[in-house]
Amino acid sequence: MQQAIFIILALLTLGAALMTVITRNLLRAALWLVATFFGIAAIFILLRAEFLAVAQILVYVGAISTLIIFAIMLSRGIMDPDQVRFNGQWGVVGGFAALLFVVLAVIVTRVPWPAAAGGAPVGDAPADAIARLGAAFVGPYAIPFEVASVLLVVAMIGAIIIARERE
Amino acid sequence: MLSQYAFIGIFAVIAFALPVIGLVLSWLIRPKKSNPAKTTTYECGMETIGDTWVQFKAQYYLYALIFVVFDVEAIFVFPWAVAYNKLGLYALVEMALFIAILLGGLLYAWRKKALEWH
Q1: Does B61 touch chain A (CB under 8 A)?
Q2: Enclosing domain of residue A10
Q3: Which residues on chain A are in Cβ contact (under 8 Å) with B91?
Q4: How many angstroms away from the CA of B7 is the closest CA of chain A?
Q5: pTM above 0.90?
Q6: How far apart are the C-alpha atoms of B109 and A159, rounded to whole Å?
Q7: What are A133-152's pLDDT values in tens digits?
Q8: Is A134 in the same domain as A74?
Q9: Is position A100 within any domain?
Q10: Which of B58, B62, B91 lies closest to A138 in CB terms?
């Protein structure tokens, strides 16, 4: 049953991802990307990573996709049907994408995953998993936690400087 | 736990199916007689003026980016809030520091008039 659900979700996610890449209209590609994000969130739930699924929907579906769609709306002539689909960098980008695929494939096949090795089936996450995560933020990971805040502020200030430079 | 998510799955399927059924039904039963006047683009009953795809202001992007920053902040605050009862004063101080740094960023955006509409 769970495997059937996984296969359906994987097909939906992969199909949406494929449409993101092959559709000609950039705005439609962004909307297909949103569908891909939803599929990934569903797979997170299947992996019993509820918090990751909620974060995925809140951040990627809610915020990042808005950002991408705004970026498309800001670009001049991006909806021109005569827009060329490839620029001079497509070969380099294709090479790096292939390299990333090879690296990920090596990781997936070489890492001894506990579930794949016929180990004990992974049970539900402990009920207090999110509380433990919160305690870890302010406990052993306090410094990375505060650094994350600084990183967010740096991103915000950088964006303001770049966006206001033109005026 | 997983079986409870089946309800969300059922809701998602129904929510997706309803508009598809409506569109397919209207496509099936509508008369297919088209003419150039019917396929023109209109806006509030009027012909559109200029191109539909116009370039929007960069201000939108700034709003969206500040929204992303505070969205990610909320993700960090949620687990802390769940664990709040078990944590001491130290955790409260740390979260206050976390939010204070981000408030500094908000203050900067405010001072630079990034929140105002030009």
Answers
A1: yes
A2: 1-78
A3: 135, 138-139
A4: 13
A5: no
A6: 10
A7: 888 888 888 888 889 889 98
A8: no
A9: no
A10: B91
